[in-house]
Amino acid sequence: MVLLDSAIIATSLPRMAQEFGVEPVELSIGISIYLVSVAAFVPLSGWLSDRFGARQIFLLSIIIFVAASLACGMADTLGSFTLARAFQGLGGALMTPIGRVIVLNHAPKNELVRAMAYITWPALTAPVIGPVLGGFITTYFSWRWNFWINLPIGIIAWILVWRVIPPTQPTARRAFDPLGFVLSAGALVAFLLGLESFAHQWVTWEQSALLAIFGIALGYFALHHLRRTPQPLLDLRTFKISTFAITSVFAGTYVRVGINATPFLLPLLFQLGFGYTPLEAGTYVLVYFLGNLGMKTITTVSLRWFGFRNVLVINGLLCGFFVAVCGFFSPEMGKGWIMALLLCAGLTRSMQYTALNTLGFADIPSSLRSSASTLNSMLMQVAMVLAIAFSVLLLNGSRFLAQREEVAPPDFTVAFFAMGLLVAAASLVFMRLPKDAGAEVSGHDGI
To answer: What is the architecture, at CATH level 2, of domain 240-447?
Structure first.
C-alpha cells in the first residue's frame, strides 16, 4: 500500500485539480507533503518499535494509513487533501521500516534471502506499475478509488498481522531523545525538500540548493549528537558493521540512485522522445516489471552458488550496462529488441536490489535491528529523491549545452549512460567485501 500509493496518484493529478478547482501544478503539494511527513516521522519508527513492540506499532500504522487514505478519497478541497496526505505519510513512515524489523526478527538466517526477496518486490514494482494502475483507475472509475482501494487491502492486512504475527514485547525502554528527533527529522526534511524542489522547479535552483545545504548542516549536527548522547534516538553502531555500511550507506546508495532513475526516465523517454501514448509507454514499462518479477525464482540459488560479493559485482556491472543501453533506444529499433533489453534490465535490477537489502541486514544483531531498519529506510528515501533530482539535472544540462528548447532523445542518452556508469562504478566497490560475506545467510562456501 505504502510504496504503491507514492506512485499511483501521478497520473490522477489533472483530474483531481479539476474537481478541486485549482491548477494541476498546485496539487504537487499533495506529493511533497507526503514526502515531508514520511521524512519527518521515519526517525521515530525504531524508537517506537523498541518502546512499545514492533507488532503493536505495525498494527497502529496500518490503521493510520487506511484512515488517512479514506480521508484522501473523501477530500473536496486542496486543504483537506493535503492534511490527509500528511497523516498518510505518518502511517507510511512507521509501516515500512517496522515491517522489515518484524521479518528480520522472525526469519531464520538460512531463509533471509527468500524473505528479503519477497519484501523487496513491492519496492521494485510500485514505481513501475503505479502510474499505469493509477491511470486505469482514474480513467474507468474515479481518482478517489486510488485511495479507497487501500481500505479493503488494509483491513485484510490488519487481520493477517493480528492472526499470523506473534505478539512482540518491547525490547528496550529507552528514554525519548527529542533533540535527536528534531535534528534527524529536520535534516531529512530539509535535504529531501531541497532536492524535490530542484527536480520539480518549485523554487529557484539557488533556493533549492540552500535548502539542501541546510539539511546537510543539520545532518552533521544530528550525527554529532547521536554519537555522544547516552540514549540516542538512532543507534549509529550499525555503521560500524561493514556489510551494512557498504550496502546501505556507501556503494549501495549510489547503486540505488542509478537503479531508481530508470522507472522515472523510461516513461519520459517513450512519451517525450518517441511520441508514444501513455498506454504504449506503459506497455514497455510493464515488460521491465516482468523482469523484476522473473528474477525472484533464481535469486536464492544464485547467491548460494556464487556468494554475495560475486553477485553484487558481476550482476552490478550487468545492471549498469543495461541501464546505459536504455539511452540508445530509438523508434527505429525493433520492438522485440527493446522489450528484450528491458526484460534483462529488470532481471539484473531485481537481483541487485535483493542482494543489497539482504546482505545489509545479514550481520545485524537483534539489538540493533530497529535502528538499522530505520536508517536503511532514511537512506532509501534519499536515494529515491536523488535519482529524480540527478535525472532532471542531466536532462536539462544536456538540453542546455545542446541549446535545445525541449528535451530530446539525445538528452536521455546522456542521462541513462551517466546513471548506468554510476551503477557499474559503485558495484566495483563491492570487491572490497570478503569472499565469505553473508555466507551464513546465502549458504555459499566462500570459494
So the answer is: Up-down Bundle (1.20)
